[in-house]
Structures are given as C-alpha cells and as structure tokens.
Amino acid sequence: MKIKETIGIDVSKLTIDVTVHSNKAYCKFENTVKDFKKMVNWVFKQSPFSPENVLFVFEHTGLYSHRLAVYLTKENISFSMVPGLEIKRSLGIVRGKDDRVDSRSIARYGYRLRDEISPCKLPSKELKSLKTLLALRETKVKQRSGDKALLKEYKLVYIRKDNEIVFKILEKSIKSLSKYISEIEQEMDKVVKSDQGLKNQYELVTSIKGVGPQIALYTIVLTEGFTKFKTHRQFASYCGVAPFPNVSGTSIRGKTKVSNLANKKMKSLLDLGAKGSLQYNLEIKTFYERRLELGKSKMSTINIIRNKLIARMFAVIKRNSPYVDFMKYAA
C-alpha cells in the first residue's frame, strides 16, 4: 500500500474530530456507526487521492476507538491505531487541549511516518474475549485485595461482636469475588481451548519454567498471538525490561538502564515469573547465584532473567516446539 494521504481522527466518547492532511479540511462527527458512514464519504470527497492510498490514523482509546476500528475493518478501509503516548511524545510540548488541533496533529504525525506506519488488523474474537476477561479478572482481584486488607485491619482494631455486620459484609464480599475470579478463569480456559492456534501457543509458552497462566495469557493478548512484535527485543522494550545505554558525548557515561515507559502490569508479572523460576529452574538459579558471586546487583540479574523468559517465549513460538530443559539431563 502506497500512502499518499492521512486522515487524523481525535476520538472521544461522543464525538470524533477529523482532519484531512493534504488540504487541512476539518469536520466533527458523532461517535456512532451512522456518522462513520458520513465521515468516510466526506473524507473521500475532500481528499484528492484514491481510497486505496488513504490511511485513517487515530489514537488507541479502548472502547471509544474500538467501534470505529470495527466499522473501518468491515468497509475494508485502511487504518492505524497508534498508542496515545507515542503521538504525544512526537508533538513535543503542547499547552492546552483542543480536539480540532489534536486531529490535525494526528494527521501530520501519520503523514510524517507514512513510510513506517502499518495498517492495523483487529485481533480475532477469541483474543478480544481473552483481553476483556483478563481486564475483568484484574479488577476483581484488586477489589478482593482491598477487602482482604480492610478486613485484616479491622481485625486488629475492632472487636468482632461490636461490628459483626461489617465483618460479615467483608467476608461475603471476599467469598463472592473469589467465586467470580474462579468463573472468569474457567471461561478463559474455555476460550483458549476453543481455538487450536491459541491452545497451541498457550501450551508452548507454559512449557517454560517460570511462565505461568497469567504471563502466558497476557503475552498472547498483548502480542496479538505473537504477530504485533517482530522480535522479543521489541516486546521487552514495550514491557520496560530492555536495557538502554545512557551515554551522551564524552561527559555522560551512565549505567545502562531500563525505561520507565512500560506496560507496568506485564513488567510486574515478568518480575514474579523471574523470581519463581529461581525456585524451579536449575539453570536460572545457577546463573543467578554465579552473577551475585561476581558482585552483580540482584535487580540487574532479575532483569536479565525477565528478558530470558521473553526470549524463550518467542523462541518456542518460532520453533513451534516446547521448551527443553537440558539441565535436567546434565546429571
């Protein structure tokens, strides 16, 4: 696809602001399927280029942008959903908030990167279902953790017989939330087993010691079935575990470090996986202990292990064969 025109769209809950890059034409529409059709017709009247050379660019805003993405997919119209942070960082310092200006900036961003940007494809319904279930599970787990912490605090401060109703409500809430979490996990298991490709990927990545169900599912969803990132290094960077040099000229010679721009949830899961692999993977444990003996820091070593887990997940998918623990046969 040769991109000659980009359409910048600023998506909000109720409206979408649209700017055509070539002639700066602007119009506001409602965020509804009915108005999407009007918007597309308006764009192709305004732009001097043929539809196959036009790319619609908008920020990935979750539920608000999903409806537009679904419509464009059905109409076979090329589009690209870009992370909001990526757009904001490309604009530099911006004062205030203006939807019209934002749509123009998005159009300019898309045109500037037209040779690098790739049209998006929506993930399968199974992946979308998994993503929704994972988000719901995370919400319920946080609610349960909050109730457990509150109950623990009350037990230290209050006498139960004087506050029986408070204790009962919290205990019932914790029990109900545990039931919901279990139901969500059962449903996720059904979704994975319903799709042979997902099932195969899940079994491959969980063959790695240190990669449990949550790491496996989040990785599959975030990589859209290992199609969104070309290399494990790219995904490691997205997760905030890829080290980058801190060097400038001759005066700055800082330590190599990871970026704070990261998917914090995935990073925390990888941290748990890395620490868990120290208990169950002899190779990883030996590597960890040898590094510490050499005076290396614990955190830098844990970060290397996090990268190893990512590299191994991508490797088993590429080879389409389970992970083999050679240390098991060394003795």
Describe this structure in words.
There is one protein chain. The chain is of the alpha/beta class and 331 residues long. The chain folds into 3 domains: 5-112, Nucleotidyltransferase, domain 5; 125-194; 219-330, no CATH class. The protein has 13 helices and 7 strands. Strands 3-2-1-4-5 form a 5-stranded mixed β-sheet. A two-stranded antiparallel sheet has the order 6-7. It starts with a strand and ends with a helix. The model has no long low-confidence stretch (mean pLDDT 89).
Strand-helix topology:
Layout: E1 5-11, E2 15-20, E3 26-30, H1 33-46, E4 54-59, H2 63-74, E5 79-82, H3 84-91, H4 99-112, H5 125-157, H6 164-194, H7 196-205, H8 213-222, H9 232-239, E6 244-248, E7 252-257, H10 264-280, H11 282-293, H12 298-319, H13 327-330
Parallel strand pairs: 1-4, 4-5
Antiparallel strand pairs: 1-2, 2-3, 6-7
